[in-house]
């Protein structure tokens, strides 16, 4: 018996390399990998379509407690899901990031390109899930390095009511505003390493992180029961985040309104357009040594269009995206009268030319026209310069859970241009909700 087993072991050892190098076996492996990728592509496509049409379908359901409970239960798993996103990068910067400025703009404190060399980017730990058939909860803790210090802040912590009738949802807590297109996304879902100049110059959250407006507040949103996606919404925020930077009106210092419309054109094309407004009461908003108190009004127009041959975005996809910002401010700048108008826009194209590989191009611009007694010679003085930023990106995603990115920026934010190189990885562990369109 032992001799027979020994003979079988020797035979297997001798034939294993032959099997491992068999062309037929390699073809089967390639075909299995292709089938697995096609399956993941179809699941992703269905999730994106579900995110667009589910609110409209839910709005048509019978308005009974049993119906709304079933609708809420169908939106996800009961209990909490835990997900971790790891984000790190290497940055090669010609200019010292400590001297970063945008002539004509009062900046949040982290609007620059980040620190040189190896550094932990903004990584996230998220816990989310259905609380019961009537409430959904989510909390996200973000952490990043700043010099020798690791900074941690609560990025989002909110509840939502997905089971209300007539297409309404209510969200309360700390969350990213739904103004514009990019603002609601977390950083790891961006197509580029850094946010466009208009976001970095005009918005920040309570943790001081430039590029996203998030605060403590309440959101009411309505989705029309139509085949074409159409939503209206309004938000009320405390007003601690930039551009408010100081809670006015007894902790009700910011309000926003937004409207979005979109849909599918055949199987291969989809689009979304929007218009948003943010009105803030600033109370001694800090930007370095400068202070602003007064009214800040921001308008944002956004447009996104996607094309995927045969409706399969994982195989190939072209995504065109653009937003335009216009802000008017009036009040006191360093205790002197001040009025200012600032404009900004960005446009980008990202093309997935083969599965797992994407390339992108983005152009950002800013301009300002500020007037007042202390504007001349200050950071609000544009000095005749128009900040400009051009980015090229190459992205490799072995799966939907891992991503490697190389990016080059030609940064002309200041008179002297800066050549910037970034090498970044983004890795996801555990469950994570699909992002909106």
What does this structure look like?
The protein has a domain at 92-119 and 158-430: Porin. It contains four helices and 17 strands. The chain has helices spanning 2-20, 23-59, 65-73, 197-202, and strands at 81-93, 117-120, 123-132, 135-146, 149-160, 168-176, 214-223, 229-237, 254-265, 269-287, 290-307, 317-333, 336-354, 357-372, 388-399, 402-412, 418-430. A hairpin with a 2-residue loop joins strand 13 (336-354) and strand 14.
CATH homology superfamily of the domain at 92-119 and 158-430: Porin
- Beta-strand fraction estimate: over 45%
Strand numbers in spatial order across the main sheet: 1-3-4-5-6-7-8-9-10-11-12-13-14-15-16-17
Reading off the top of the CATH hierarchy, the class of the domain at 92-119 and 158-430 is best stated as Mainly Beta
Measured on Cα atoms, how large is the radius of gyration? 25 Å
Give the SSE string: HHHEEEEEEHEEEEEEEEEEE
Fraction of residues in H or I helices: 10-25%
Instruction: Describe the oligomeric state of these chains in a short phrase.
Output: single chain
How far is it from the N-terminal to the C-terminal residue, by CA? 64 Å
Look at the structure and give the mean pLDDT: 86
- Number of E-type strands: 17
Key traits:
alpha+beta; 437 residues; Porin; 16% helix; 17 strands
Topology:
Blueprint: H1 2-20, H2 23-59, H3 65-73, E1 81-93, E2 117-120, E3 123-132, E4 135-146, E5 149-160, E6 168-176, H4 197-202, E7 214-223, E8 229-237, E9 254-265, E10 269-287, E11 290-307, E12 317-333, E13 336-354, E14 357-372, E15 388-399, E16 402-412, E17 418-430
Antiparallel strand pairs: 1-2, 1-3, 1-17, 3-4, 4-5, 5-6, 6-7, 7-8, 8-9, 9-10, 10-11, 11-12, 12-13, 13-14, 14-15, 15-16, 16-17
